[in-house]
Amino acid sequence: MWRGWTLTVKRWKAGNVGPKLTEAFVPMAFAPGDACQFDWSQEQVELGGIVQTIKVAHFRMAYSRQMFVAAYPRETQEMVLDAHNRAFAFFGGVPARLIYDNLKTVVDTVYTGKERQFNRRFLTLANHYLFEPVACTPASGWEKGQVENQVGNVREWLFTPLARFACFAALNDWLATRCRELAQRRHPAQSQRTIADCFAEEQPLLRPVTAHFDGYVEQMMRVSSTCLVRVDRNRYSVPASAAGQAVSVRATADQIRIVAQGEIIAAHARLFGREQLICDPWHYLPVLDKKPGALRNGAPFVSWDLPKSIQAVRDRILKQPKGDRAFVELLMMAGEAGLDALTVACELTLEGGVVNASVVMNELRRLISPNLPEAVNNVPDGITLKTEPLANCQRYDHLLGARNVH
Predict the structure, then answer these.
(1) CA distances from 27 to 129, 143, 147, 189, 202 (A)
(2) Within this chain, do residues 347 and 234 fall inside the same structural domain, yes or no?
(3) From CA 74, how far away is CA 270, in angstroms rounded?
(4) Which of 27, 72, 291, 356 is spaced 20 to 30 Å from 143 by Cα?
């Protein structure tokens, strides 16, 4: 009996349900300078001859529709911080609010309704630039629909066909130029004006950027016995004096900085491959002083791209007895004088034809020693010679003859 009732209800619903309603939305309106929307997209490009997947940060001013995009290897927090620095520099100011999805790099915890616990480092950025971060309701992308649509348009306008550039810097310069060019299109809601015209109205209402935000992400690490710290599967060198110590490693979108006792002791360009070794040979000079044999096979020195004159002198000296120690002493001295001074000293030594560590060190000392001031003789007028004596070398012959007699 219940089965029969169920079938009857289903037939009734099938015959009485009207056409399916289309989901409805509320049109959005924004005041000039009020809001900017943010999102990420994933694109394909060719960088340095290699096709790879990259992340693109999208910004869109909600009133003027002025957009800005920047490309990165990934969408980690330091990339988010750097993207905001670039966007505010491009816009020439900061809007009152920025609207986001609930990104893990922005939002730590999503509570009921609009309440959010924002990431502490991200809040530091927001407090620095004095904008209000706003997180969308989960699964409500329409709250930032402009930038959602922009993602698809940018893929068609800028990444189809495949974009080809030498590096991220060249790609980002081109993207910024294209954002300015695309602003010459008609504004979608104000058809008599261009996006650039509307942005010219909006830009003076943005909060001026008074100071650049240092967008690093920090973590504490201990320097290994080989004077290295590991960041994102790559290893970077640190001065030997910090071996075994705890240091602060600050990663930005393009740099790794190592800080100890409040001072930067090392800085490297950031790489995004895997298992790469990035060494500054000067960090290892104190180790060479105790272990000069490491000069021949030590990884920092094997790949050291020295000037040709230094390479030529090094190859000659290493073939001489105790050459390792002698060349290390030259490097120690160059650590204070500078590599340019050592380069000139090696060039002078090669021109002279006698190549050994002593000659190079003598040339180096002559280059770096201060020029002595000319002697000033303050001789009283009463004892000044009226007739200066003439040089007479025959006197030495007379002395030599006298010595031979004895």
Answers:
(1) 29, 10, 15, 12, 20
(2) no
(3) 13
(4) 72
Instruction: Report the pLDDT value the prediction gives residue 388, as an integer from 0 to 100.
Output: 74
The token pair at 259 is 């800080």
Tell me how far CA of residue 255 lies from CA of 120, 174, 269, 305, 338, in angstroms: 21, 22, 5, 21, 24
Q: Average pLDDT of 341-349?
A: 92
Q: For residue 92, what is the domain's CATH number?
A: 3.30.420.10
Residue 381, domain member (yes or no): no
Tokens of 316: 């000659």
Q: pLDDT tens for residues 7-53?
A: 565 665 666 555 555 666 566 678 999 999 999 999 999 999 999 99
Question: Is 153 found in the same domain as 86?
Answer: yes
Q: Is 103 exposed, middle or buried (0-12, 13-18, 19+ CB in 10 A)?
A: middle
Q: Is the pTM of this model over 0.85?
A: no
Judge if 108 and 153 occupy the same domain.
yes
Task: Measure Cα distances from 55 to 58, 71, 159, 272 in Å.
Answer: 10, 6, 12, 13
Q: Which of 177, 205, 233 is the last residue of a domain?
A: 205
Task: Kindly state whether residue 127 falls inside one of the protein's structural domains.
Answer: yes
Residue 104: how many CB atoms within 10 A of its CB?
A: 11
Q: Is residue 19 part of a domain?
A: no
Give the structural domain span for 186.
35-205
Q: What pLDDT was estimated at residue 406?
A: 52
Q: Looking at the structure, do residues 48 and 194 belong to the same domain, yes or no?
A: yes
Joined together, the tokens standing for residue 221 give: 């690490």
- How many domains does the chain divide into? 3
DSSP-derived pairing of the beta strands 35-47 and 163-165: parallel
Instruction: Retrieve residue 368's tokens.
Output: 């770096």
Q: Is residue 320 part of a domain?
A: yes
